[in-house]
C-alpha cells in the first residue's frame, strides 16, 4: 500500500503498551499461541473477519488456534507484517464512531514463492489441523455452469510436473496431503471463506480434481478423509487506502503500515463438518449449521448481486463509492426495489431470517457514510459474479413469470462497463479473469448478442428472449440517455415489457 510518511511510532510488540486506552490490544501471551491454522490469501478480508474471531477466541484463553499466514501472490503484506511483529489494526467504522483493536493471532507469515519448502513443511506439520482460504472466487478455477475444475493453466501444469515447488493453492494442498498420508498423519480440514455458493464443494472439486491428475489413489484418499465444509462469510471490507493509514496513526499515535477498515457488522455461518477438530468459534458468535446453502443464497443474491448492480451502473454514472450511490435517492431506490421486487421473491425460506428486515439492515450497512467502499472493488471479476449472484435471480423470475427489468438493467450495466470507458470517456477499472471480453464488447458496440452468447457466463439464458431482449433494450437506453436517467425511468415503470 502506498502512503504518506508519518512520524508516529511503528506498530510492534514493543509499542503495544503505548496505544491509547480506547484501542484494545491482545491481552494474551502471543508466544504461547499454537499455530493450528494455516490461512492462504491474507488480504483485507481475512484480517477483518476470520482473524478477528480467532483473536477474540485467544482473548478468551483458547490458545490452540494461532494462524500461519501464507501468500502466494502478495509479497508486500508479508514485508509489512514482518516489520510489525505480525500485528495490525482493525478499525470498525460505524456511521457515528470508530472502534479500533490490534489483532495478534498471526504467529508467522510466509510468502510462498520465496520459500515453498517452508510452506509445505508447515502444511504437513501435525499441528496444522485446519487450512482456511480466501483466494477469491476465481481462485478455484471452477466453471460456473459445468461445475468442473479447469486444469488448463501453466501453473497447474507446473505443479503436476514439479510437486515439490508448487505455484498454486492446489499444488500446495495436495502435496501436503500426500506427505501427511505417507507419514500416517490425519489430514487437515479445508475451509473456504470465499464468496461463492457451495464454496466447500468448489474447494473439494478443485483439490480432488487436481489430485486425480497427479495420483488417483491420493485423490480417493482425499475424497474419503478430508472435510471441505462450506461457509457463508459476511463483513464489508473496503480496500485500505493511504487515508485510512493516516487516520489510524492520527487516532492511535501508532503507525500501522497496513490497517484494515471494516464495518461493525459481521457474520460467519459454517457447515459443522471438520476432519481434525475445530476452534470453538461458537463462543464468539459463529453459527455452526448442517447446511449453509440457504444462508449463502440469501447473502450472495441480495448483498453481492446488489453490489454488482450498483457497481457498474454507479461507476458509469461517475460515482465511486457505495456511500455516494446510497446518498443518491435514485440509485438507493433502484437497489431497494431490485432486492424487494425482483430478488427476494425468488429466495428460499430461511428459518429465523426475516427477509424484509435483512434487506433493511443491508441498505443501512451500504449507506454507512463513513465507509468509502470502492465501486472499483465491487466491479472486479464480473464474469464470475454475474452468473453466480445475478443470473439465478433472473432464472427464478422467468420461472415464476415475474418481470425483471431492474435485473436486466444491472446486466446491461456490466456489458456497457466492459467497453472500458464511462460516459465521460474516462477509463473504467476492469479486472480479470475475462479481460478478453473487453474487445468483444468494444467491437459489438451497442449489440448485446456477442456477449450474451458467451455460454460459459450466460449459458442458455443468454439466448432466451425473455432475458436477451430486455438486456438489449436496457443497453441501448443506457447509451441514449445515461445511467441515472435510465434508472429513474425504469423506476417509474417504463422499463417493463408491454403486457
Ligand atoms: N472484502 C470483503 O468485503 C469480503 C467480504 C466477504 C468475503 N470476501 C472474500 O474474500 C476474498 C478476498 O477478498 P479481500 O477483500 O481480502 O481481497 P484482497 O485483494 O485484499 O485479498 C485477496 C487475497 O487473495 C489472494 N489471492 C488472489 N487470487 C489468488 C489465487 N488464485 N490463489 C491464491 N491466493 C490468491 C491475494 O494474494 C490476496 O492475499 C474475496 O474474493 C471474497 O470472496 C471479501
Ligand atoms: O469479494 P468479491 O469480489 O467476491 O465481491 C465484492 C463484494 O461484493 C464483497 O467483497 C462484499 O463486500 C462482501 O461479500 C461482504 O461480505
Automatic annotation (TrEMBL):
<keyword id="KW-0520">NAD</keyword>
<feature type="domain" description="Mannitol dehydrogenase C-terminal">
    <location>
        <begin position="291"/>
        <end position="478"/>
    </location>
</feature>
<dbReference type="Pfam" id="PF08125">
    <property type="entry name" value="Mannitol_dh_C"/>
</dbReference>
<protein>
    <recommendedName>
        <fullName>Mannitol-1-phosphate 5-dehydrogenase</fullName>
        <ecNumber>1.1.1.17</ecNumber>
    </recommendedName>
</protein>
<dbReference type="InterPro" id="IPR000669">
    <property type="entry name" value="Mannitol_DH"/>
</dbReference>
<dbReference type="InterPro" id="IPR013131">
    <property type="entry name" value="Mannitol_DH_N"/>
</dbReference>
<feature type="domain" description="Mannitol dehydrogenase N-terminal">
    <location>
        <begin position="36"/>
        <end position="282"/>
    </location>
</feature>
<dbReference type="InterPro" id="IPR013328">
    <property type="entry name" value="6PGD_dom2"/>
</dbReference>
<feature type="region of interest" description="Disordered">
    <location>
        <begin position="1"/>
        <end position="23"/>
    </location>
</feature>
<dbReference type="GO" id="GO:0008926">
    <property type="term" value="F:mannitol-1-phosphate 5-dehydrogenase activity"/>
</dbReference>
<comment type="similarity">
    <text>Belongs to the mannitol dehydrogenase family. UxuB subfamily.</text>
</comment>
<dbReference type="GO" id="GO:0019594">
    <property type="term" value="P:mannitol metabolic process"/>
</dbReference>
<keyword id="KW-0560">Oxidoreductase</keyword>
<dbReference type="InterPro" id="IPR023027">
    <property type="entry name" value="Mannitol_DH_CS"/>
</dbReference>
<dbReference type="Pfam" id="PF01232">
    <property type="entry name" value="Mannitol_dh"/>
</dbReference>
<dbReference type="InterPro" id="IPR036291">
    <property type="entry name" value="NAD(P)-bd_dom_sf"/>
</dbReference>
<dbReference type="InterPro" id="IPR050988">
    <property type="entry name" value="Mannitol_DH/Oxidoreductase"/>
</dbReference>
<dbReference type="InterPro" id="IPR013118">
    <property type="entry name" value="Mannitol_DH_C"/>
</dbReference>
<dbReference type="InterPro" id="IPR008927">
    <property type="entry name" value="6-PGluconate_DH-like_C_sf"/>
</dbReference>
